[in-house]
Amino acid sequence: MKKIEAIIKPFKIDEVKDALSLIGIKGMTITEVKGFGRQKGHKEVYRGAEYVVDFVPKIKIEVVIDDVMVERVVETIIKSAHTGKIGDGKIFVYSIDEVIRIRTGEKGKDAV
Amino acid sequence: MEKSLKEHIRHLKDQREAIRNSRDPQPPGREAVRELSVITDVFLVSVFYQAERKWQKSHPGSLRSITLVPVGGYGRNELALYSDIDLMILCAGGSDPVAEFVSEEIFYPLWDAGLEIGHSVRTVTDCIDIAGKNFHTQTSFLDARCLAGNRGLFGEFKKRFHERIIEGQRKKFLENILIENQKRYQRYGEAAFLLEPNIKEGKGGLRDYHSILWTAKALFNLSTLEEMVNAALLSPNDRTSLEQSLDFLWRIRNRLHILTGRKNDQLCFEYQEDMAGTLGFAARADFLEVEGLMREFYMHASNIEYISSLFFDRIMHALKIKPHAKTVALPDRILEKGVSIYKGEIRIDRPEALIKKPYLLLKIFEYAARYKAEIHPRTGQFIRDNLCLVNDSFRSSRRTSRSMLNLMKLGSSAFKQLEVMLQTGLLALYIPEFENIRCQVQHDAYHIYTVDKHSLLTFLELSLMREEDKYPFAEIDRPEYLFLTALLHDIGKGIGHNHAEKGADLIPKIAKRMGLEEEVIRDMVFLVRHHLLLVDVATRRDLEDEKIIIECAQKIQDIKRLNMLYLLTIADSKATGPRAWTAWKAALVDELYLKIKHILQRGELATPQTTARIRKVLSRVKDGLTPELKNPAVSKHIENMPGDYLLTVTPHKIIRHLQLAQGLSNKKFALFIEAKNSFRELTVLAEDKPGLFAQISGVLALNDLDVLGTHIFTWGDGIAVDIFQLRELIEEPADEIKWEKVTDDLEKALSGRLSFDYRLAEKTTPLSFQTKKRGRSSKVVIDNEISDFYTVIEVYTDDHPGLLYPLSRTLFDMGLDIRSAKISTKVDQVVDVFYVRDLYGQKIYHPEQCEEVKKALLFKLKGDKRTG
Known about the structure:
The complex is a heterodimer of chains A (112) and B (868). Chain A has two helices and six strands; from the N terminus they run βαββββαβ. Chain A has helices at 13-22, 70-81; strands at residues 2-8, 29-35, 42-46, 49-53, 56-65, 90-95. In chain A, the strands form two sheets. Chain A has a four-stranded antiparallel beta sheet, with helices on one face. In chain A, α1 (13-22) runs antiparallel to α2. The radius of gyration of chain A is 17 Å and the shape is elongated. The mean pLDDT of chain A is 87. Chain B has 868 residues and is an alpha+beta fold. In chain B, a hairpin with a 4-residue loop joins β11 (705-714) and β12 (719-728). In chain B, α2 packs across α12, α5 crosses α6 (135-142) and α30 crosses α33 (651-662). Residues 767-773 of chain B have low confidence and may be disordered. The chains are: A alpha+beta (112), B alpha+beta (868). The A-B interface holds A 9-11, 14, 32-34, 38-40, 42-46, 49, 51, 53, 55-57, 83-87 and B 471, 539-544, 582-585, 587-588, 590-591, 594, 597-598, 784-785, 788, 838, 840-843, 845.
């Protein structure tokens, strides 16, 4: 099992969510996050008042899936979150040791 | 023949089962809780006497020494199916063997029957001790009644409880009740409980009613609502409406217990849905059945809350307790004839004053907000008794309208009065459109307040923002209209989908009735219609896309409106719930706001005039399309045309460009030449890519074509339209041959088969330019403030042929993409303005990089002079 964590642009969330559910992903966790990578924060000057953007608002998506799905999920996220501009985000793939559904106690694949 | 204990229990169980299985869509409320109490009473009395007889058989001659006393909710005869059955066995002396025997006989079967029993065995002295220590026991003893056994003992308990606990401590009792209420409101007023209210403990829940009962009993020895009415602690109308609301609460509480199969007073989402169905709430097209149920619930809860607050106000007045000690005493004064401030309270002398001057109904609240004073309870009662005075002429009176607007100016002190106006119903009478949103619920986890409450809270949030001088509040002209709009922004909810549109449609009627000016009405309509715009765009659209920002700017059109919209947006979100306004969302909305503001300030693309012009150009282009241009691809091009393109290029030419674009499917580029009086105009269309502009400039330079001016545009769908005004440096060769060569060179250049640098170096500069004098130094200015989307590079230098190529080539080499450019020549001075972004679509922020670009460009300019 793997966890896919993707940081994407906020306005792309609907597209990514729809694309993922089209390939059969039933659940995901979404968090509003802020940060910066190569797309640095910047300073805008507005009528003399500085408006500093230290961290850029992003959305973090987390999905836990069976190994065989990894490639499709990653591809789907890339395709749907891509704008070609800086700040499109990143995808991280983690290995997961165990998944347990709290309600039933099911483990592994069944619990995903 | 006497029933056995088993039979009694079976009978009790059967009766409870019958209640559980009842499918009555309109089940009784009060009657049901009373009935269950009676059923329980009958069971207990039978079992009690059976046990007593049993005891007396084995202990002949023993006296009846114990009493069975229901307390708490059971004492009040208010049992829901799984309510605790609170029972106390009162006995004459400590460790009474009778008490022990009887309690076993009673409690064991009840436990076996699966009922929740709160039980205790106490002497009168025990009772007084514990009541003195524990306020909850105190209140539950107020509900105590005698069910069976020794009545004299119960009488003694009552008497001593009264003497020891109540007498002389009435004020203390009231204080405790108020503290308990406060604690309860705080605990059950948290977000989670607002969505999933607790029928018993929440604001407006059954506990509020119990507090009234306890207080009336402890302070005035009044046991029923009727007695309270007779003692003028409650108006007859309030009593009737209180009873109706209680009946509703009991009804859904019973249903909730049946549904969950346990003692549960919290209306969780899942149960709300189930209950709405079984209680016969019908869905409407625009309204879920569960929203119908919850709306009714909140109507009743707010009614109970209100009546309870009136009750306690009266009590405190009667006892001369000031709830809020004022730090600065308000001097007594006469406000107008018949209206005065006396001891910090606003009062009307006689109710007739209202009939003579109905406008006072609103004006009183304005006074209260202005002087931060309370309204005397009796005056409040006058107002509530005279609400029938609110008729059409009241609603359209300038005088009341002025009071309303004055109230709007008063910010947070007006908020409190608006709450009272909402509770009394005055607000919805004055603005009848408000009735639709009263207690209106949205069945989701996001909107935690009912719509009316949310509207008032939006008003409050806005007031707080003004108090902390949130930017740009200082720029708001007449804030009262913004406040009024905040109050009305969701007025379209509860009448179907798209509440913003629906609300905007209602505004003119309301505003005209209030006699507001046309201009104000237009702003209000705009704000209500677009109150979701900023959040929607900020969270769902690409803020790096200039076109999106320009579209917003065109919708909003002026900075005054933008400022109001921005403040309303924040207040609206904050008033929605703690999750609706986060630093994350604020960052996006702020960015959008500043970008729109910037566009509006530059005033080129989004003024009403330019918006109208763009619309006109678009419609003329669409009208002028030839049949072969009427296809989806062309519509897509048109949709994506940037504003500056539409404002600069004539409709006729735009159509020409669209025709050329048709050819791009099988060619790298398309071009055409037009002869003007003293120059030629070349238009090139091509798929945009970095370096395109430099390559075209190179081809022009190679062919001895001097660029007098240029406009380059990029359609949103990635097609570059580059227009050059050209002067031929050499008349030869003839036109057709020359343009054929240009086309051919361009073809080669775009396929990477042409190297400019060595070819240009080999060329000799045409004679006509060698005589020009030079000397003025060149200047490069890099500006990041003009645009939020591009870095603007301005190059000032002497004109000389072929200048454009080295400049654009340098920018390309430095990884900059030229999105638009304006070249203008004045005699021999040239100003080249480039709008650039880096290959990632960002402006160049880094000072080092800016410096590098500047130096590279200056070097090119010098170098060219040297060789020139």
